[in-house]
Design brief:
Blueprint (H helix, E strand, L loop, with lengths): L4 E2 L1 E4 L1 H5 L9 H14 L3 E5 L5 H13 L4 E7 L2 H11 L5 E8 L2 H8 L3 H16 L5 E6 L6 H14 L3 E6 L6 H14 L7 E6 L6 H10 L4 E4 L13 H10 L1 H4 L1 E2 L7 H12 L20 H9 L19 E3 L5 H10 L6 H17 L3 E2 H12 L8 E9 L7 E8 L5 E8 L3 H13 L4 E9 L8 E11 L2 E11 L2 H21 L9 E3 L1
Parallel strand pairs: 1-10, 2-3, 2-9, 3-4, 4-5, 5-6, 6-7, 7-8, 8-9, 18-19
Antiparallel strand pairs: 11-12, 13-14, 14-15, 16-17, 17-18
The structure holds 3-methyl-2-oxobutanoic acid and zinc ion.
Length: 527
């Protein structure tokens, strides 16, 4: 490795991450998240797989048009239709990249593609040439590279570089390799691909054996200069290389790794939390870097050491990853200016429209809750700002719950229906507790057949007046397909948060049916 080499960080949270069950996002959420990735300082954002659905196409297009100073990538299989579609979505980007792929392993070539090595090689070369007809920034991935015959892999890499690929990504598609082997594969390519200096070598590791970050680091040490990762390590099956872990490993062990990234590590926590809020999936408490316990020292011996000198047990400082001791920010009487300053410190910049909406929600919360913390603000941002109300069919106007130890719980819900001239409809229902009664009332109003598959409750801040967040997984059978969505709701009242989360999910189902392409290859569609 020469000097303090830059490692390019290619984020695929919105593609590989988003395609895994439980992590779907709608277009607005993807744009919002992409903007946060820019603040984090990633070099490239894989924004989606445009040919797969109208929704994917539109989100890649929106991200391409909106983001500046970052490469925006669209994925395409090695065929003209995919590549043309990727370019259609990317063409307005300041810095577009087409990423095309086909398998190089015999297992895939014979059993999935039912082709010969020479045939897939020709398809790979043709795909890269077609993509080069659109842009000078083309990435190629030989899928399942780590289970491929090495000499064939080298031949494929050499051929696509000759055809014009500027980045060649070596994926461990099934998370099968281990660090020593992956390092040997990368070194083999450097030694046997004659034109390898004309492309950036990238790696893309899956975490089936829990080795994605270790394998990526081994590849960096062997000469790879781009790493594909996702926030919180989300992705197919066990996920992908976790960006935050890779970046902090490179930063913390720069004495050995001798490389650097341009990631602003202070944005890591905000990015991780934003993803959790959008998808409704939290990371486990002991998750490296971003888990709630990652910097918590519980044992007496550790605490004693920490009090004497932090270096005894702390290898990274919490503020390096953006953990600020939860600051009491504001309350009812705080001025707009103070709130704006805090939002800026947290790394959020918003348009005037977004701010106006945000303040409406902020004031409503401040009326109910005396002290507002950073976590509350982040929850409000994702809950209130980034959900475009115009695209939401139902709006909860009112919830009234009556319950007691000896009286059957009863909830009245009033909804406004945006598709029906904003008509207000209310219903009352009984149930097994206030939330269940509220959900039955919502079902009566909307006539939905959707049902809740999982229900998850978290208190965002401490205290009995804490904001609660409920996330639900909701499923509906629609035209022979299973639609699965995630909804979240935030309120100081736990039951109301539950009802809001269900209505949020119903809005996503409506959105999916109305705006998103439910067609193509998709068997199970989620948002
Ligand atoms: O895991 C994989 O091989 C992929 C490719 C499309 C790069 O995600
Ligand atoms: Zn992958």
């Amino acid at each position: 490795m020469s000097g303090n080499d830059k490692i390019y960080i290619f984020d695929t949270t919105l593609r590989d991450g988003e395609q895994s069950p439980g992590f779907s996002m709608n277009i607005e959420e993807k744009v919002l998240f992409a903007e946060q990735l820019v603040r984090l300082g990633v070099d490239a954002i894989e924004a989606g797989f445009p040919v797969i659905s109208d929704g994917d196409f539109e989100s890649v297009q929106k991200i391409s048009r909106r983001l500046k100073g970052v490469q925006v990538v669209g994925l395409a299989r090695a065929n003209s239709k995919d590549i043309d579609s990727a370019w259609g979505a990317l063409k307005d980007a300041e810095n577009p990249r087409i990423h095309t792929f086909i398998s190089s392993s015999d297992i895939h070539i014979e059993h999935q593609f039912k082709k010969t090595r020479d045939e897939v090689l020709d398809l790979a070369v043709a795909a890269v040439k077609r993509a080069r007809g659109y842009t000078g920034n083309v990435e190629f991935s030989p899928m399942d590279a780590t289970r491929s015959d090495l000499s064939f892999l080298a031949r494929m890499v050499e051929s696509v570089i000759d055809a014009g690929a500027t980045t060649v990504n070596i994926p461990d598609t099934v998370g099968y390799t281990i660090p020593s082997e992956f390092s040997r594969i990368i070194r083999y390519l450097f030694e046997n691909v004659h034109n390898i200096d004309r492309a950036v070598i990238s790696v893309h590791c899956h975490n089936d054996l829990g080795l994605a970050v270790a394998n990526s680091i081994a590849a960096v040490e062997a000469g790879a200069r781009q790493v594909e990762c996702t926030i919180n390590g989300i992705g197919e099956r066990a996920g992908n290389t976790a960006l935050e872990e890779l970046v902090m490993a490179i930063k913390t062990r720069s004495d050995i790794i001798n490389a650097r990234t341009d990631i602003n590590s202070k944005q890591i926590i905000t990015t991780s939390k934003l993803l959790s809020r959008i998808t409704g999936v939290s990371v486990q408490p002991n998750k490296a870097i971003v888990g709630d316990n990652a910097f918590a020292h519980e044992s007496g011996i550790h605490q004693d050491g920490m009090l004497k000198n932090k270096m005894t047990y702390e290898i990274m400082r919490p503020d390096d990853v953006g953990i600020v001791k939860s600051k009491l920010v504001l309350g009812k009487h705080s001025g707009r200016h103070a709130v704006l300053d805090r939002l800026k410190d947290l790394g959020f910049e918003m348009s005037q429209d977004e701010l106006d909406r945000f303040f409406k929600y902020f004031k409503a919360l401040a009326d109910k809750k005396k002290e507002i913390f950073d976590e509350d603000l982040i929850a409000l941002i994702s809950e209130a700002i980034y959900r475009d109300e115009e695209k939401r069919r139902f709006k909860v106007q009112n919830v009234q719950i009556s319950t007691g130890m000896y009286s059957p719980p009863m909830t009245m819900v009033t909804l406004k229906d945006h598709y029906n001239n904003n008509a207000e409809v209310f219903e009352v229902a009984h149930g097994n507790g206030g939330v269940d009664a509220g959900i039955q009332a919502v079902k009566k109003i909307t006539g939905t057949e959707a049902f809740i598959k999982s229900f998850n409750l978290v208190a965002i801040t401490g205290g009995s007046d804490a904001l609660s967040e409920v996330s639900v997984t909701v499923v509906e059978n629609y035209g022979g397909k299973e639609l699965k969505v995630f909804g979240s709701g935030v309120s100081v009242d736990v039951s109301i948060a539950g009802i809001l989360s269900f209505v949020d999910a119903l809005n996503k189902l409506e959105y999916l049916k109305k705006y998103n392409g439910i067609h193509g290859d998709a068997q199970n569609v989620s948002l």
